[in-house]
Amino acid sequence: MKIVWIAQDLHIGGGQRVILELSKKLVKRGHEVEIIYPRGRGGFQIPAGVKATPSGIDISSPILSLIANTPAVIAATPLCDWMICSMPISAFTGFAAARLRQAKMLYYVMNDERAMFDDRSLMRSTLLISIYHSVTDLAHQLPVKIAVNSQWTGTRVKHGRGYGYPVIPHGVDLDVFNPDGPRSEDKNIFTIATVGRRHRWKGLSDLIEALNLLSGEQSGDGKFQLNLITQDDIDLSSAKFPTHILKPESDEEIATAFHKADIFVHPSWFEGFGMPPLEAMACGTPPVITDSGGVREFARDGENCLLVPARDPAAIANAVTRLMENGELVKRLSASGIETASEFTWDNAANTLEEVLS
Fold first, then answer.
1. Is the pTM of this model over 0.70?
2. I need a surface site. Which of 40, 87, 206, 265 has the fewest CB within 10 A?
3. How far apart are CA 227 and CA 350, in angstroms?
4. How far apart are CA 186 and CA 11, in angstroms?
5. Distance between CA atoms of residues 17 and 172, nearest Å
């Protein structure tokens, strides 16, 4: 098959990683894959055999770039069998391109799209957020095939057709994320890792508040530090404990950060799936995970993680304390997490995607 992804960007983020991982697997299976995205919004390394085509003009604003370059993206779309899109504006672009090229279209929804800007971290205007809500509602009503990345995400796509969408779960690159890696040699510091973004709904402020609670309670042997894995410029001045910002340039560097951490904390308010805690599990690093929706695909409280309510710093602090004080619990969650992660491979995800497209 000739498959064309229309991406809002290839700059940063879990959704973009999903596009690249699935594209890589599809190419290895003999399919022809091309990714079309607005010019200036690249950044990720493109897998061998996958064609990436920037279109339009370079505009610094992500939203303006996506809107202004829509005609160029449509014009750049070649004849194909399937068009795959994620995110509402890209869905309209893909729908127009699919009609023009007489192709089929899959709308692969990866999160609660309607709520993604409600925290006003990236979009502060009430009017713009309202317009975005309307665009999302209309996108979910497009007469196209829809797939989701988790059962929870399926419940967030509401347009009168009911639920029951095919689920294409995300995966883990087990060649990169596995237990074989260097562990921290400093036994005097308990290292906590997390992945952070500027979005408030990623819950970083909740984690800092939680660790500030612990910082005020502990001393001596209770020393800990937070390693923040991010590509954003984030202010950690409110933290009352040692912090380190890591800006990895590859998945291998992310895996190394997981290996050197004693635990991983994923504090999001909502997630369509949640790859970072699953990747941490694959590395043998037990996670504390907020009950953010899509993580229920793999997170089992007390078995492979500690699952706590979202937006509850006290609950996060209590879970971190349990792991800091109970080495046997850490070992048990670590072993079970490695086993869980082994079930979520990109090959399995590509199998499901092929089934959906066929």
1. yes
2. 40
3. 32
4. 34
5. 11
CB 234 within 8 Å of CB 204: yes
| Span 297-325, average pLDDT | 97
Query: 191-223, pLDDT tens digit by residue?
Result: 999 999 888 999 999 999 999 999 876 544 458
Of 58, 195, 203, 66, the closest CA to residue 121 belongs to 203
Residue identified by tokens 């192709």 is 103
Exposure string over 72-89, b if 16+ CB within 10 A, otherwise e:
ebbebbeebebbbbbbbb
Dihedral (C-alpha) 277, 283, 287, 289: value to the nearest 10 degrees? 10
Q: Residue 186 pLDDT more than 70?
A: yes
Main-chain dihedrals φ then ψ at residue 352, nearest 5 degrees? -65, -40
Lowest mean pLDDT among 113-122, 132-141, 301-310: 113-122
DSSP reduced 3-state for 266:
strand
Domains of the chain, first to last: 2-171+345-357 (3.40.50.2000), 190-341 (3.40.50.2000)
Give the Cβ contact number of residue 192 at 10 Å.
25
pLDDT tens digit sequence for 66-97: 889 999 999 999 999 999 999 999 999 999 99
Query: Residue 186 corresponds to which tokens in the numbers above?
Result: 């400093």
Stated length of the chain: 358
Concatenate the DSSP letters of all residues of 116-150 into one string: TTTT-SS---HHHHHHHHHHHHHHTTSSSEEEESS
15 residue type, one letter: G
DSSP state of 297: G
Distance CA 225, CA 223 (A): 7
Strand partners, 52: 35
